[in-house]
Design brief:
Length: 434
């Protein structure tokens, strides 16, 4: 049990302190991809010398940041067409004629020769979450007796128990703020805030989920009837009653009325739609379709540039005596410099700090001249080089923190695999926990 608690603490520390928020489908791997990663690690271990690592927190944070940044850039490149070289930058780009009503992203197959359908979307109402607004109570007083209280929040078929103490000197406002932090910080899909009105305050709970629950009266319920500690706080704060039930979005797609539980959903495995607002006039629609190849490529290049610049910006901002951010910057800028002439022809300029800027006018002209095919091929080579570099960084981010070389392996003898060469990255996160 102690080991499980330690592991949970480490995992939560990693997620809250270092991990980026974005999660991509490219973070999942099939057996063949995992096998390739395994063989890459074995090869890396076999050829690695023995060295001592800098064990400072600064080094740990930089290594984790480098790996996370490389993962994000890796996923950005993969999302622009796929994991195969001939599919890079080949993804179609979707558009909506009215972003205030609906925005769209293409998720269909890359390079498909089949006709991609368009859709007319009218939004009658948006999907809404459940809201429980508590009683407005005097902020600077309290009528709840000193004790230890608890209550249960039930979501789907899972109960979450919350406990807290009421002590001398507490007020309604201080307890409401404490409960808001407690509930929101639990990560159970409920956002809790304190609403104030003059000298009155109330606790407001809002579900992350939207849409009418199937077979249930509400998305979540709160009760202290069977709580393990003192009861009565749910009625006192008034958070047990549903103030506004959750509701579905009502939309019309190509003349067909539909009801969806979320404002973000997929449409016929072709588009990801996000409902942003209600159609201002009944019958007014937004057309969702795909851009032509030139516009799609331009959008893909723009996303690639943003991902590259974001990673470069991380390395530039995290300078330190204990890291090798200069080496990382040199390597990334070196990749761009190899393709400098081709990048310039396409409208991509390398700035003094190594970042890229895209000139839309030059890009359009480059696609209209006779060398467009060659230029696109060069751009795919650049993306592929970045893709392979991010894979390398992800395998061994520890190469970018200070280390002291101890010994090289004897080249005259068989190289045995060093099984723990890649372990410092994962092991360092357990420092001070185990």
């Amino acid at each position: 049990m102690a080991n499980m608690l330690a592991l949970n603490t480490v995992y939560n520390h990693y997620l809250t302190s270092y991990s980026r928020s974005s999660v991509s489908k490219y973070d999942a791997h099939n057996k063949n991809e995992l096998r390739d990663i395994y063989h890459s690690i074995v090869k890396l271990n076999k050829e690695a010398p023995l060295y001592l690592l800098d064990s400072s927190r600064e080094s740990h944070a930089f290594a984790i940041g480098v790996k996370e940044g490389a993962r994000e850039l890796h996923n950005v490149i993969a999302s622009l067409g796929g994991l195969k070289e001939d599919e890079l930058l080949n993804k179609k780009a979707a558009f909506s004629t009215d972003e205030n009503i609906v925005s769209a992203q293409f998720i269909g197959e890359t390079g498909s020769d089949t006709d991609i359908p368009s859709f007319e979307v009218e939004v009658r109402s948006l999907a809404t979450p459940q809201v429980n607004l508590g009683n407005f109570l005097p902020s600077d007083s309290l009528e709840l007796p000193v004790d230890t209280y608890s209550f249960d929040i039930r979501i789907h078929n899972t109960n979450y128990e919350f406990q807290y103490k009421v002590t001398e000197g507490d007020t309604n406002l201080s307890l409401q703020k404490k409960l808001a932090r407690l509930i929101s910080g639990a990560g159970i899909g409920i956002d809790a805030v304190v609403e104030t009105d003059d000298n009155l305050s109330a606790l407001k709970l809002t579900s992350s989920a939207t849409g009418t629950p199937i077979g249930k009266e509400s998305l979540f319920s709160i009760s202290d009837t069977h709580s393990s500690k003192a009861a009565g706080s749910v009625d006192y704060f008034g958070i047990g009653e549903v103030t506004r039930p959750a509701s579905n979005a009502q939309i019309i797609i190509n003349g067909q009325e539909q009801s969806v539980s979320s404002n973000h959903f997929t449409l016929e495995k072709t588009y990801e739609l996000t409902l942003n607002g209600i159609s201002p006039i009944e019958g007014q629609t937004a057309t969702v379709s795909v851009k032509d190849d030139t516009e799609s490529l331009g959008e893909n290049i723009s996303k690639l540039v943003d991902g590259y610049n974001s990673f470069l910006n991380f390395a530039s901002e995290n300078k330190g005596r204990r890291t090798k951010n200069a080496d990382l910057l040199k390597e990334m800028r070196g990749i761009a410099s190899v393709y400098k002439d081709g990048l310039n022809h396409m409208g991509l300029q390398i700035k003094e700090d190594g970042s890229l800027t895209l000139n839309a006018k030059t890009y359009t002209q480059s696609m209209e001249d006779g060398e467009a095919k060659h230029t696109v091929s060069m751009m795919r080579d650049f993306a592929d080089s970045l893709f392979r570099k991010t894979s390398q960084i992800s395998l061994d981010p520890m190469q970018y923190i200070n280390n002291t070389m101890v010994a090289y392996k004897n080249p005259a003898k068989t190289h045995f695999v060093t099984p723990y060469h890649t372990s410092p990255y994962s092991g360092m996160m357990f420092n001070s926990y185990c």
